[in-house]
Amino acid sequence: MREYSANEMLSKLISFDTTSWKTNLELIEFVTEYLQGFGVSSQVFYNEDKTKANLLVSIGPKDIPGIMLSGHTDVVPVTAQNWSSDPFDMYAKDGRLYGRGTCDMKGFIACVLAKVSKFVAADLKEPVHIALSYDEEIGCTGVMSLVEHVRAMKVKPRACIVGEPTNMKVVNSHKGIFHLLTRVYGLAAHSSTDLGLNTVTYASKMINYLDELAEEMKSRLPVNEGFDPPYTTIHVGRIKGGTAANITPEYCEFEWDFRPIPDRDDVQDEVLERFQVYVKDYILPDMERRDKKSARVETDILSHVPSLLPESGSTAETLVLALANQNDVHVVSYGTEAGIFQATGGVPTVVCGPGSILQAHKPDEYIAQSELDSCDEFLGRLLSVIKKSGSK
Predict the structure, then answer these.
(1) Residue 17's closest CA among 83, 72, 84, 87?
(2) Per-residue pLDDT averaged across 176-200, rounded?
(3) Does residue 257 carry a catalytic annotation?
(4) DSSP string covering 297-351, please?
(5) Which class for 334: exposed (0-12), middle (13-18), buried (19 or more C-beta within 10 A)?
(6) CA dist 364 to 35, 167, 334, 358, Å?
(7) How confident is the model at residue 163 (pLDDT cuts 50, 70, 90)?
(8) Domains, the chain
């Protein structure tokens, strides 16, 4: 099997259009065949209809705690974005590598896969686990089958490194994400009769309550330093209701999220709990006074990404600080699969990867060549740490 440089591997990975609503199987099949060329077998975890898959690879000795290197294979859409060139055909210019996913986060995956031949050739004293997931960009919903497998391992990894773009800074904490959909059911009528139950009106009351709650969150003193913004955010991003101006809308829905600051477990879902109490105590009684039969409010959690909680002095933090030649840890406001590996998988986890989050999700997304080089050097230092003395 031919060896790829990190740049060559990244170009290959970018050529697979793994936008979240599409399959990632072509990429997974390529990686599986690539690994087989080095005698490395893969475990593949398919979704229910077998259109997408997670992949887990272990290189080195068994039954010994090792290091997990994790990344997601899906990318955000390019629809309606004005790109200067084909987003799935990587090109280099002025020290930058352009293409959808170069930064978020195929750059990290490319560096890891380019290192496989060296991991295989070395006499490792502990294993390297490579974990690739799907559907991270739509709420980290795809990784669970892989995480459940990790949780069930007799000997779990001692550290997990999620390679989201952090400019190779060590991140030990990030906010969580609750992504929700609220549906409001009422009664249609001609607007002149005032006999309907207007779901748009009641949805607006609930949205106004969320806005007041958001202002309250802003006024609280930060519980953890470093977050920008330094409070739990609440955001309503979409609303849909009604069919005509003279028909009382019988249905309305709005999609919203909140991103809690990492803190005690009992306050992570405070926003949702208070919202539900408000609906139960104020909204529903008022709706039912007008039409008890039709009145209904339902809120579903579309996805939940747990916060990554700081674990000062953990095996992951200590290892990655040393590999990155850094003394300080950082926090970020975006969510990652790291919180899931920590909370569900039971593995000490940090985030550290090449590229800047400021370039993610944008047209003409790019990663600096220097960032890719830094990640390659980082993985080289990891290899030095986990191979036995004297091995080549």
Answers:
(1) 87
(2) 97
(3) no
(4) EEEEEEEEE--B---TT-HHHHHHHHHTT-S--EEESS--THHHHHHTT---EEE
(5) middle
(6) 30, 18, 21, 12
(7) very high
(8) 6-174+307-386 (3.40.630.10), 177-305 (3.30.70.360)
In the chain, alpha helices (H): 6-14, 25-36, 107-114, 116-121, 144-152, 199-219, 270-278, 284-291, 315-323, 338-343, 369-386
Closest CA to 162 of 373, 352, 10: 352
Could you give the 3-state DSSP secondary structure of residue 181? strand
CA angle at 37 for the pair 36 and 42, rounded to the nearest 5°: 15
Q: At 273, is the secondary structure helix, strand, or coil?
A: helix
pLDDT score for 262: 86
Nearest in space to 135 (alpha carbons), one of 146, 125, 124 = 146
Residue 179: name the closest of 227, 229, 234, 135 by CA.
Answer: 234
Query: Is-contact 326 46, C-beta < 8 A?
Result: no
φ, ψ dihedrals at 84, nearest 5°: -80, -20
Q: 159, 315 in Cβ contact below 8 A?
A: yes
| Annotation marks residue 364 as catalytic | no
Three-class SS state of 47? coil
pLDDT digits (tens, 9 = 90+) for 306-348: 999 999 999 999 999 999 999 999 999 999 999 999 999 999 9
Task: With beta carbons less than 8 A apart as the criterion, state whether 114 and 69 touch.
Answer: no
Q: Which residues on neighbouring strands pair with residue 233, listed in sequence order?
A: 259
Closest CA to 162 of 138, 129, 139, 135: 129
Q: Maximum distance among all alpha carbons in the chain?
A: 87
Least confident stretch, 130-144, 259-273, 303-317: 259-273
Over the stretch 147-157, which tens digit does the pLDDT of each residue have?
999 999 999 99
Given 104, 136, 257, 337, which residue is catalytic?
Answer: 136
